[in-house]
């Protein structure tokens, strides 16, 4: 500490050298659907330490944007789907949104470069709810940006699921926008193209494998040994390239041959499904990083690929309606610890750098009592209650805790509930079932987590544990 200036200079040098070697760098999605988010300053430090130069946010999260001030990190700010109708309905609302959520942060040295209008708004599960609001929302936000003098600095885009385009054959060269939404897609894409904005797409080989058990596993990876797809002499050995080029063909076919493309999300979950584990996630992510590090692009698009990893950190409050894997997309666990070795090509370490100064709760867990009788009727009720309000997505066939026996299973469930409720004594009072221990129940790949300290974002305070605990009291009353 004698020479802080020197230390600082070394730090800056170490951080800058890798930045200069790659033009586009790598981005990451920063989602905040967590019961215990890491403090935004910790996350920004994590991004910087890992040489991640771009971040994508799903809304204009005030704490995140404030923490990104002066970091130099390039930011894409999202407008959630449920705000599209408002943005579409009035120019005033769009102007207010831009003023409060873009201009104010730009003045505070946040390097905002994109506004993502909606998030996969044409996903079939939305039943077309956003088909009519997306375009007017997009044009209003664009007009508001121009009015604020930001037309050149901040670009709009729309992150789309890769199912907005399709190929009538298995070959990318047959690519076009999906027939049922073709006109909507054309209108939006033309507007983006006219305004010098990129097309943003989320590409998920994992989901292809998840929904289709006949999908050739090897084709999902970049080092796969599967049969290549031959497209008029061009061979495709991995799904990513083929999918990306299907978009390139679709854009070309509709008159946008030079439009920029951003891969808004790319990733592989590490738990919650038989194909979601650290081994596959590591293989996919490292394969992708190595693939894009060469700067060669895809057969149809030479050059660097602009991409955002999905995701930075696990989110334990995400809906599991699409599947239990939803809460396990992070390259880091909830506490900012790396899940596996991943060389992003941005640090001298050649591996992920963990979050610093993470504050954990005490080393204690809530587990099944030794004296418990497995035929006690309160067990089933306790487990379903704990799993509904905690997180049991690491239990089940092929998951990290899939090998637990019935008793360990129950311990896992009640512990999850206990940790999410900040280890409050009342959260381990499942009648006749649970007790607190200081012996780590973790086994093999199954990690019984210790929660991190709750971070309160000032005014933007989340629902605390009060609501959940009131529920357990009710459960106790019903059982007793
Ligand atoms: C700014 O963004 C936040 C988060 O998405 C949203 O809740 C808020 O309504 C926005 N502010 C305005 C003025 O639109
Ligand atoms: C879409 O339609 C299905 C079936 O009609 C319905 O269950 C679901 O709630 C709808 N979803 C939305 C977002 O409207
Ligand atoms: C453990 O729990 C999971 C998820 O509820 C279930 O699928 C599995 O069968 C259970 N295992 C045992 C041994 O009870
Ligand atoms: C708890 O165990 C005691 C003794 O075995 C039993 O009498 C009581 O009914 C149990 N309570 C519940 C809620 O299962």
UniProtKB/TrEMBL annotation:
Domain X8 stretches: 364-448
Alphabetized UniProt keyword annotations: Cell membrane, Disulfide bond, Glycoprotein, Glycosidase, GPI-anchor, Hydrolase, Lipoprotein, Membrane, Plant defense, Signal
GO-annotated molecular function: glucan endo-1,3-beta-D-glucosidase activity
EC number of this enzyme: 3.2.1.39
Membrane topology: Lipid-anchor; GPI-anchor
SMART domains, A to Z: X8 (SM00768)
Presence of keyword Membrane: yes
Subcellular location: Cell membrane
EC class of the enzyme, as a word: hydrolase
BP term (GO), one: defense response
Gene Ontology CC terms: plasma membrane; side of membrane
Record's signal peptide: 1-22
Catalyses which reaction(s): Hydrolysis of (1->3)-beta-D-glucosidic linkages in (1->3)-beta-D-glucans
InterPro entries: GH, Glyco_hydro_17, Glyco_hydro_17_plant, X8
Family: Belongs to the glycosyl hydrolase 17 family.
Record protein name field: glucan endo-1,3-beta-D-glucosidase
Organism of derivation: Artemisia annua (Sweet wormwood)
